Amino acid sequence: MKIAGVKGMNDVLPADVARWQEMERVAREVFALYGYREVRTPAVEHAQLFARGVGEATDIVNKEMYVFEDKGEELLALRPEGTAGTVRAFIEHGAYVEGPQKWFYMGPMFRREKPQKGRYRQFHQIGCEAFGIAEPFLDAEQIALVADYFARLGVGARLKLNSVGDAACRPAYLAELKAYLGGRKAELCPDCIDRLERNPLRVLDCKVESCQPVLNGAPRLLERLCDGCRTHFDQVKVALDALGVRYEVDGRLVRGLDYYVRTAYELTSDALGSQSAVAGGGRYDRLVETLGGPPTPGIGFALGEERLAMILEKAGKAPPAQGPAVFFVSADAEGALEALRRAAELRRGGIACDLDPRGGKLKAQFKQAERVGARYALVLGGAEVQSGQAKLKDLSSREETPVALAQLAGFLASLPRP
Questions:
Q1: How far is the C-alpha of 150 from the C-alpha of 279, rounded, in Å?
Q2: What is the predicted pLDDT for the residue at 206?
Q3: Which helix (H) or strand (E) covers residue 408, if one does?
Q4: How far apart are CA 137 and CA 204, in angstroms?
Q5: What is the CA radius of gyration of the chain?
Q6: Domain 14-169+225-314 sits in CATH 3.30.930.10
Q7: Which pLDDT score is estimated for 57?
Q8: In the chain, where are the structural domains located?
Q9: Could you report the per-residue pLDDT of 26-67, keeping only the tens digit for each?
């Protein structure tokens, strides 16, 4: 019986992996420039971590999280996002005693949502978290990092910026918002009515067309910020202006997790239609304390690799070439043995190469060379072995270049990379 993959948990095949590797390579380069170091946390955590950190009233915890009881009767969860686990590691290993920390992560996340284009049940995120600095210039620097990353990939994205207040000003605003929405409850969609009781701030993020007239008239948190939040937000904007980072203030921008305070931001792209958000993040100054650590300010973001890969593909940005430098084509048994020896020599020298151990017709071997994306093909038979000379065929231009077998490694190493 054929067994299919689990719904919403997609394979990334070799033809597509090159694009993912490029996204991750550029991320590592950019993050290093900004002083971020990699952390790797488990895909499985205690379910309580996300209930306390992300928030029991959120859709993620309430509806989407994969939760199961293991054999030891512990309630565990597949991580739905990366921040809570990173904060847990920061606390558990006492990293706070070393002063401010900048960490990044890459890996799979899991949410039981309805699978759709750009949104899967297993998805992959790249994210950064910075701990121990409350000053608004860090917010601007991290936002600049994200903008820098997208620019290096050649991806155009709009930056939306907002402040979601803090414990000093948000409670009064939420009460006002809830009263306003409650008065127009009959005009809201079922999801908004549900969120109105559990997480009224998320109502502002609704995309249902019939809800827009209600939301457009809703009170604005930006107009009700306390002095501390207002000053912080103004300084973030000043710093972004100084860094040359373009942004638009969006008073309806909220994040889907309870831990965000003050700065919230999101990068969007029209290339994905309704699923426009590619990256998002914000400040979470109380999260470390909520999860049992000392009071420690923090700010972080995450971007979706699946969505970013779709944008790159739609923009026609080809992934880097991944094929071997040369593919050995065996003309006979003597050539096949020589191909094995020469391949081993090249690989020891760090030059990627391939061959077909089955041998067979030359035409079939040349097709295999093109299939694996080789740059060159080199035919080896008894004549080439005896003479020590062969012809290196460029599989794009079809030009042939004579080369001495003894000098093959040096010749290939001297060629410019495509």
A1: 10
A2: 82
A3: helix 408-414
A4: 27
A5: 27
A6: yes
A7: 60
A8: 14-169+225-314, 326-412
A9: 999 999 999 999 999 999 999 999 888 777 666 667 678 889
